[in-house]
Amino acid sequence: MVGNMTAYLRAATNILVHVPDLVRYGSKPWRETSHNNKALGDVFADLRSFDEVVDYAPNQAFIGNLAPEKLNEIASPWYENSPPGASPKGVFGEVLPQEIFYSLLELSDQFGLFMFDEQHVAAKLSSDAASALLNKDKPVKKHRQEDILQCIEAGEALPLFQGRDLVGCVRRDHEFDESLDARVLLENLAAKASGAFALRHLLVQEDIAPDEIEYVISCSEEAVGDRYNRGGGNLAKAIAEMAGCVNAAGVDVKSFCAAPVYAIVHAAALIQSGVVRNVVVVGGGSMAKLGMKAYYHMEKEIPILEDVLGGVAFLLSSDSDNSPRINLEIAGRHTAGSPSTPQVLAETLVRDPLARAGRKISSINKYAVELHNPEVMVPAGAGDVAATNYKMLAAMAVMGGEIAREEIPEFIETHGMPGFAPTQGHIPAGVPFLGHALSRMRAGTLQSTMIMAKGSLFLGRMSQQADGASILIEV
Amino acid sequence: MFKGKKVIALGERDGVPGPLIAECLEAAGAEIVFQKTECFV
């Protein structure tokens, strides 16, 4: 043991927010409509309804109503073959409609950035977590439609729609500071509001009072700050405040898509070393990635599947409560001197840390790799990311003499799963499986799972490197 | 085979990174005019 305490994974939540009318503000649709004059009308035509998003089998897997492995039994395409019995309420999550999310956005704003008019009426509050957030004394200020239009026409605000209806706008907060541009602020506040919703959902789900939480780590990707400190961050504390975690300190952990795994390792280390007794790791949704592959999907007459924000929240605690432990002795690290090839990443994140503990790759029941939904990825020519990663792990097992080459498919079926997470960058990074893992471990059907994620550091132009992190969670 | 050829090397995060493709082809005598790694997730 590294310290005196042990860190346990106590609870997990995965949430989705259906935001069809924010797809236009995703990075790719925004670029295509702003600069390349591609028609936004086409985007409207291919967007899904809330019911279609709820029914979608990968989304049911994400919120805990369907085992990810069951997706292998559902005929492709999944968007045309939804299994019966879908619900917006999940075993460990839920799907939130856009109308309620707009109210959460308004609640997340302490600077008068959002202006909603009388037309915006939040849908009936069927969400306990959203109710818990929105039952505050803050009066909701309604604005006149002409004032909203004036801000939009002056170029100071982005319009917000509900279907074809203009219901409000989000304003910039500085004339010249690009970091406080309306779209940047919307992106940051969407991460804050969806992160706070995930955190509050976790607390409602587990019947935990918000003031019991001592520390929050955000693994969200947004670069929060003004022009002097773009990326300065601490979205964690803003999320904790919004969720009512008044006794929580907070900090952000960043490493592109690898951040959630780092955040879990850091959280477990804080608990194990006795600094705090509990930590919530939270990730809000990425508006920039909405509609990232929309034009590929439209070309192939597939609905625009990137129409949801994802959110995750995990409670780690020094109290066991029949929970699996975070085994910090088997935490994979990819060092600055290591090549950034998939093989070296698999070696440093999986093979080597297990070997140091005298364990084999095949001794771990389930691996949770980058769990991007292949139905989003493959039509865009980006490949089945989860399957590619499992093949690499199986190849490692072959090279180590653990299995025969012909046993690769069986290894992948036994130790892997199909991707089921929305393509929201950090959200699919192994962690969406944690809710499933927790249920199975408490039921005695799973002993161990290794979560691994990779980060594309080269995207920031600071280094040509990739990155990665992994951690073992076991009974 | 690559000697004297101009090469654009496009790598991928879950595949082969751009700098590695460039290094291999440079060793084989190619001239790398552009190399980049992209992430499709």
| Beta-strand segment tally of chain B | 2
Record field, number of beta strands of chain A? 15
Gap between N and C termini of chain B, in Å? 33 Å
Low-confidence stretches of chain A: none
Share of residues in helices of chain B: 10-25%
Describe what this molecule looks like in 3D.
The complex is a heterodimer of chains A (475) and B (41). Chain A contains 16 helices and 15 strands. Chain A has helices spanning 27-35, 40-45, 50-55, 57-62, 98-108, 128-134, 145-153, 182-206, 235-242, 259-272, 294-299, 342-356, 374-377, 385-399, 408-415, 434-443, and strands spanning 8-18, 89-90, 93-96, 114-117, 142-143, 157-162, 165-171, 215-218, 249-252, 278-283, 308-317, 325-333, 366-368, 448-455, 467-474. Chain A is α/β, with parallel strands linked by helices. Chain B has one domain. Chain B has one helix at 18-27, and strands spanning 6-12, 31-38. In chain B, helix 1 links the parallel strand 1 (6-12) and strand 2 (31-38). The radius of gyration of chain B is 10 Å and the shape is elongated. The mean pLDDT of chain B is 90. Classes of the chains: A alpha/beta (475), B alpha+beta (41). The interface between A and B is medium-sized, with 23 and 12 residues.
